[in-house]
Structure formats: structure tokens, C-alpha cells
């Protein structure tokens, strides 16, 4: 991934911020056991400095609104299973409450974090019971769709996810920047969830103000300070999008998140449903039902309830279609009407709109499965279906599409289990047949023989003369054009398989590692790379390749979690080093002060 042009300035700003934070921290933790007068003066100075720093940062980011909670999501009050992982649920609670008479002054951030923790724990429990739980950090496709809190029931409608790179470079084109994505998403909804790295925050656009809510640790300077253990949640508002972006970049750099990493933005539409209205509705339905029962009892036996017209017609037509003549007439009429193009278009549109409904799709699927099962009882139909499938599978594009669909299905745990059970049942049925058993034994014997041959070849290839003879024979065979073509096609078909590609990649890497142990090879390789990197196209290709590799690596939540843990451990090491340095400096100051006092006395 190529680094951005103005990375030095960003790093310099971050160093200035960290130095100022360290200074304030050192001021607060100065000697406190020598003289009480010095301690009082020290505390007064530290308070004045902290107030000055807050006002300075408040003005530097051009913030209109600034509000802190009394704790963050890493507070000890939260359980171990949820602590530090509730950011998505916290953001959803904030956005849900913002639908009800939003006022930044009366909004309770601590209440949001408490409710978010409850919702997170309940939702994780639901995912575990359903067998859909993957990771403690929830992705956008795993967040809850419905939230129940005392203020009401909130239904969350997810829009299309936008993703890209936080900062745009000339070398990378086709990716949206963070600013472009926020502008596009606000057109869809004024409520957004932003995820970069393992950090999820919320943006709410209201009355021409961009409100940013985050439940992670924020110090008095509104950014993350690793030296400050008493961080709080934050709500900060900006009148301009550029001010919001400058704050976001500063916040992410304070968290040591690389700004060339991928981000995701999810616009959400939230609709509220009042619980009191639901209760009154239920009571009204109950009384209506009781009234209906009483009127039924009062009616005379010959009186009956009227059947709706639609139900009557449905039953009438079903009974009518059982007759063969009427069936044939209806089919011929449909065939005649389908000759018209406009009719065909309207019918296709109607079917598409019906298939968007999941309930209708399920019914249609069940009907198709039932008709296929009935048809497959006929052996002629079976033979024709198999022959048709074989013909279709000759096409390479169809084969690739089928393989990809199977891979995507196997990623689902439930489908894998169903497939496994089906295979086991089929194997048990097949093993009852004696011929199948014999064939299975023959296959095993062939495999053993194949392994023996491979071992023998490996042993023989240790001899240099045999190697030379084998290579000479291969070169002779490869002179034939037909053989060369067949070999190239077989290699292509192998490379279409992802498992074989991975094995080949690992083999190449192993050979490269072995060869790189030689200094001459290393030198030649570096010289070749230097020459190749002089070309701009090669550099672009290399940067894009690295970016896609990073993107693919970070698409797995496990890798993201590992990356986050590594960063956390490195931060802890740096924190320990800083603490050790502070302790040493404290001890030195104490010694100097004591020596000065002793001299005076």
C-alpha cells in the first residue's frame, strides 16, 4: 500500500498531541508526599492546564457541541464477555434514541452504554443458540435488526454498505474516500455507522450539525490517550463536514489505526414503535374478540358466518381445475395469451415482484421440490436429466459458476452439516452393495500402490544420473506441440481450483526461502526489483496487489481480531516503557528535592 503524500505532517501532529498529553500526565503525577503546600499549588496548576487544553482542542477542531460520559465501554462494571465489544450496539441505541426528540443537552451517554451492553449480551446469546455466532466483535451483517428499550421498540432497516479507503492516493483509483462515502450515505439516511479496523462509531446529521458518538476511551483532549486509563465516551458536534473529517483522522491516528486501511459505512433507517400503543391495541382486540364470541352464541343455529368472496372463489376454482377438460382449456388460453410480448413482460415483472417476498419464495421452492421428487421416480426422466446435466457441464463457464456456488454454500455451517449427513446416508446405502465394497477396496489398493510408486520415485530422484535422464526424457516429450497444449490446459484447470493454487503458492514460497539463503541470489533479486520498480506501471501493479492482499486478509474477522490484539499488546509494551520512564523521572525528582531540602536545613 503506498503511503500518502502528507503523512509526515499527520505524524508530526500526532507526536505533538502525544507530547502534550504526556506533559499533562506528568504534571498530574508529580511528587505528592513531600510538602502539602507544593501539592496544593500543583493541583491548582494541573486543573488550570487541563481546562486550557480542553478549550484549545475544542477550538482546534471547530466543535459546536462537546459532551462526555463518566465511563467508556471498557469499564470494569461490564462483564468480561461483553467488555470492549459493545460498540455496534451502543451506536444503535444512540441512533434509536435520536429519533425521539433529539437534544444533545439532555442525552445521557452513560444510559446509552448500559443499555447497549444489555442488548449486546442478549443478541450474542441469540446468535449462539441459532449457531450463527462467529466473533465477539459483531460485523454489520450480524447486528440486531430490532431493539427493545423502555423508550420503545425500534426497527432498524439496513441500507447498502459503502466501503473504500480513508485517504485517496493517485496510485489507487476506483475507491471512494471517507468524505465521498459520508456525502453519498447522508443522501440515503441521516443516521450512519462507521467501522474502520475494529472501531465502530455513529454519525447523526440533524439541523445542519454532524453529531459524532463514540463509546471508546476519550481523554480530555477528545482523542484517545493510551496513558490515560480513565477515558470516557463522547458526543461531539460539527457544523461542517471537513471539521468532522479532520477530527476523525486525528482520532484514528491517536488509536494507531492506519489511514490507508479499509472502512465500511452502513446507513440505517430507524422506525420507532411505542409499547403503550401496542398494549392498548391488544386490549381492544381482546374486547372485540369477546364481543364476536357473544354474538355467535346468541345467533340461531341456521345462521352462519359469511365466507369472504376471495376464499369462496379460490375453493371454487381449485375444484373446477380438477376436471381434465377445463384444465386443457385453461392451458390453451394461457399459451395463446403468452404469444403477446407485452403480456409476457407484465407476467415476468409480476413474478419478479412476488419473488422479492421471502414467504412466496419458500412456497415456490417447496412446490418445485415436490414436483421434482415426483418426476424423479420415473427412471426415463432421471436418465434424461442426467444427460442434460452432463451436456451443460461441458461448458467451462458453467463449471466455474457451479464450483463457486458450492464453495459459497460450504462456508455456511448449517449447509455443511446437511451435506455431511446426506453423504453419510448415501455411503451407508452404497456400502450395502457388495460390488461397491469391492470397488472401494480396489481403489484403496490403487492408492497404496500409487504412494509406493511416489516413494520409490523420490528415492530414485536422489540419484543425479536418474534426475538427468528424467529431465532429458521430459524435454524430448515436450517437443511435441500436442503434449505441450495438453499440459498447459491441465495446469490451467488445476489453477482454477483454489486449494491447488494455495499448495502451489506455498511450494513456490518454500523454494524461494531456500534459494534466498544464498547471498548471490538475494543480491540478484534485489537488483532485479530495483530495475523493475523504476517503471510506474510495475509500481502501481505492486501497490494494488499489496492492497488487495491486505483487503482479503482483513475480510476475515479472525484476522482482524488477531491484528487488533497485536496492536493492543504493542500499545501495552509502549505503555509499560512510558510508565517505567515516568517512575524513574519521579524518583530522580524526589531525590533532588530531598537533597535540596537537606542542604537548606
UniProtKB/TrEMBL annotation:
List residues of the Peptidase C76 domain. Answer: 73-222
Pfam annotation, one family: Herpes_teg_N
- Annotated region described as Disordered, given as residue ranges: 321-415, 471-577
UniProt lists compositionally biased (Basic and acidic residues) regions at 327-355, 362-415, 471-566
Q: Which InterPro entries match?
A: Herpes_teg_USP (IPR006928), Papain-like_cys_pep_sf (IPR038765), RNAPII_TF_IWS1 (IPR051037)
Q: Which GO terms describe its cellular component?
A: nucleus
Q: Which GO terms describe its biological process?
A: poly(A)+ mRNA export from nucleus
Source superkingdom: Eukaryota
* PANTHER family for the chain: PROTEIN IWS1 HOMOLOG
Q: What is this protein called?
A: Peptidase C76 domain-containing protein
What species is this protein from? Mytilus coruscus (Sea mussel)
Amino acid at each position: 500500500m503506498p503511503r500518502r503524500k502528507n503523512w509526515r505532517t499527520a505524524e508530526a501532529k500526532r507526536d505533538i498531541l502525544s507530547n502534550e498529553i504526556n506533559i499533562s500526565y506528568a504534571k498530574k503525577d508529580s511528587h505528592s508526599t513531600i510538602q502539602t503546600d507544593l501539592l496544593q499549588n500543583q493541583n491548582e496548576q494541573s486543573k488550570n492546564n487541563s481546562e486550557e487544553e480542553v478549550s484549545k482542542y475544542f477550538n482546534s477542531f471547530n466543535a459546536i457541541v462537546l459532551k462526555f460520559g463518566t465511563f467508556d465501554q471498557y469499564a470494569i462494571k461490564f462483564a468480561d464477555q461483553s467488555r470492549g465489544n459493545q460498540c455496534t450496539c451502543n451506536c444503535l441505541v444512540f441512533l434509536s434514541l435520536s429519533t425521539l426528540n433529539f437534544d444533545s443537552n439532555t442525552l445521557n451517554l452513560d444510559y446509552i452504554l448500559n443499555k447497549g451492553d444489555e442488548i449486546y449480551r442478549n443478541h450474542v446469546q441469540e446468535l449462539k443458540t441459532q449457531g450463527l455466532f462467529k466473533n465477539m466483535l459483531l460485523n454489520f451483517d450480524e447486528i440486531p435488526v430490532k431493539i427493545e428499550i423502555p423508550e420503545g421498540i425500534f426497527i432498524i432497516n439496513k441500507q447498502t454498505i459503502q466501503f473504500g479507503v480513508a485517504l485517496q492516493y493517485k496510485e489507487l483509483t476506483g475507491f471512494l474516500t471517507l468524505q465521498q462515502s459520508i456525502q453519498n450515505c447522508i443522501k440515503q439516511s441521516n443516521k450512519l455507522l462507521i467501522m474502520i479496523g475494529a472501531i465502530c462509531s455513529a454519525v447523526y446529521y440533524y439541523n445542519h450539525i454532524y453529531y459524532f458518538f463514540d463509546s471508546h476511551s476519550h481523554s480530555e483532549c477528545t482523542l484517545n490517550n493510551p496513558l490515560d486509563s480513565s477515558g470516557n465516551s463522547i458526543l461531539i458536534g460539527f457544523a461542517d463536514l471537513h471539521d468532522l473529517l479532520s477530527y476523525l483522522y486525528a482520532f484514528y491516528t491517536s488509536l494507531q489505526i492506519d489511514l490507508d486501511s479499509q472502512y465500511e459505512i452502513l446507513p440505517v433507517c430507524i422506525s420507532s414503535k411505542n409499547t403503550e400503543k401496542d398494549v392498548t391495541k391488544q386490549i381492544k382486540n381482546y374486547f372485540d374478540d369477546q364481543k364476536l364470541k357473544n354474538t355467535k352464541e346468541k345467533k340461531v343455529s341456521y345462521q352462519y358466518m359469511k365466507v369472504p368472496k376471495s376464499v369462496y372463489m379460490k375453493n371454487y376454482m381449485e375444484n373446477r381445475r380438477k376436471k381434465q377438460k377445463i384444465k386443457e382449456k385453461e392451458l390453451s388460453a394461457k399459451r395463446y395469451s403468452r404469444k403477446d410480448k407485452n403480456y409476457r413482460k407484465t407476467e415476468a415483472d409480476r413474478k419478479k415482484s412476488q419473488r422479492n417476498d421471502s414467504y412466496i419464495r419458500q412456497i415456490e421452492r417447496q412446490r418445485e421440490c415436490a414436483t421434482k421428487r415426483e418426476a424423479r421416480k420415473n427412471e426415463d426422466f432421471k436418465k434424461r436429466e442426467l444427460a442434460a446435466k452432463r451436456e451443460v457441464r461441458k461448458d467451462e463457464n458453467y463449471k466455474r459458476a457451479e464450483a463457486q456456488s458450492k464453495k459459497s454454500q460450504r462456508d455456511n455451517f448449517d449447509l455443511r452439516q446437511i451435506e455431511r449427513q446426506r453423504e453419510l446416508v448415501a455411503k451407508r446405502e452404497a456400502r450395502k452393495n457388495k460390488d461397491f465394497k469391492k470397488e472401494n477396496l480396489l481403489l484403496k489398493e490403487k492408492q497404496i500402490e500409487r504412494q509406493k510408486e511416489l516413494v520409490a520415485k523420490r528415492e530414485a530422484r536422489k540419484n543425479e544420473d536418474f534426475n538427468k535422464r528424467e529431465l532429458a526424457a521430459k524435454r524430448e516429450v515436450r517437443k511435441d506441440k500436442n503434449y505441450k497444449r495438453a499440459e498447459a490446459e491441465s495446469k490451467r484447470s488445476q489453477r482454477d481450483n483454489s486449494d491447488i493454487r494455495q499448495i502451489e503458492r506455498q511450494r513456490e514460497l518454500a523454494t524461494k526461502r531456500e534459494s534466498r539463503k544464498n547471498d548471490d541470489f538475494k543480491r540478484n533479486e534485489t537488483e532485479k526489483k530495483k530495475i523493475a520498480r523504476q517503471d510506474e506501471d510495475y509500481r502501481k501493479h505492486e501497490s494494488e496487489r499489496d492492497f488487495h492482499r491486505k483487503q482479503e486478509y482483513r475480510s476475515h474477522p479472525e484476522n482482524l481480531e488477531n491484528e487488533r490484539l497485536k496492536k493492543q499488546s504493542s500499545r501495552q509494551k509502549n505503555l509499560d516503557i512510558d510508565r517505567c520512564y515516568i517512575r524513574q523521572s519521579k524518583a530522580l525528582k524526589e531525590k533532588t528535592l530531598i537533597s535540596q531540602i537537606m542542604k537548606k536545613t
